[in-house]
Design goal:
The structure is a single chain. By secondary structure, the protein is an all-beta fold. Helices cover about 0% and strands about 45% of the residues. Strand 5 (about 40-45) and strand 6 form a beta hairpin. It comes from Salvelinus namaycush.
Length: about 130
């Protein structure tokens, strides 16, 4: 009898830092490598030590304060995309996020830092010409 499962070994790949403007939707990238289905895995996203999103057996649990603002692209799970979408980005959302994927005995984690993109006040030098 064949069973549907993720390859015996997988790794998580992500970007180290992501920047967004307040109010935007931002994606925290995280992918299984090699590209394999994540449908039968447990996926957890943490902000520092707090679990803000849990996907397990097709069921989703969102932490208070993140309800309706966080999601996975479920149609992308088949391709190993476990990236987290965060809507209505707030300054309080900045920090380190940990993507954790568990399948059987294997548990992998990847960290993505979320920063506020520089606002309208830039610190670039300005030169004035006296004419």
């Amino acid at each position: 009898m064949a069973e549907s499962r993720v390859h015996n070994q997988f790794k998580l790949t992500s970007e180290h830092k992501v920047k967004a403007n307040v109010g935007e939707e931002v994606t925290l990238p995280c992918h299984l490598s090699p590209d394999t289905s994540a449908v039968a895995t447990t996926i957890r996203w943490f902000k520092e030590t707090e679990c803000i999103y849990l996907y397990q057996n097709g069921q989703v649990t969102e932490r208070s304060g993140y309800e309706g603002r966080v999601s996975l692209v479920t149609q992308e799970l088949e391709r190993g995309n476990v990236s987290l979408r965060l809507r209505d980005f707030r300054v309080s959302d900045t920090g380190d996020y940990i993507c954790q994927v568990i399948h059987g005995e294997q548990k992998e984690e990847a960290v993505v830092g979320l920063l506020v993109r520089g606002g309208k006040c830039s610190r670039s030098p300005v030169m004035f010409l006296n004419t």
